[in-house]
Write a structure and sequence with these properties.
The protein has helices at residues 43-56, 91-106, and strands at 2-6, 9-15, 21-27, 32-36, 61-64, 70-75, 81-84. The protein is of the alpha+beta class and 107 residues long.
Length: 107
Amino acid sequence: KIISNLRDIKFQTFPDKRAQKRFRVVSSNGQILAKSAKGYDDLEDLVDVLSWITEAVRAPSVYRDKLGMFRWRCRMGNETALVGTGSYDHHSDCTRASWRVLESVIK
């Protein structure tokens, strides 16, 4: 289900293996730029998370995973990860992808 199509980015919801609702952000070329780090029982809760991102998230953190690849994530105040990503070879690509996603949510 597409929640919003902003520029070349689509926000999609989908059920996980436990029938919880998750979201992912997909670029026009089909690349998954980000996905929810956890499942939600209610669509309303998932929409609340997107609203929280809109209001509170301004700077995603970029880090290296165990394989040395770059990833980005957004966290709530209690350090719960809200959004996780795929991996990127270059820090600049990872940073650019994170801001593309967040700019689309914030607008």
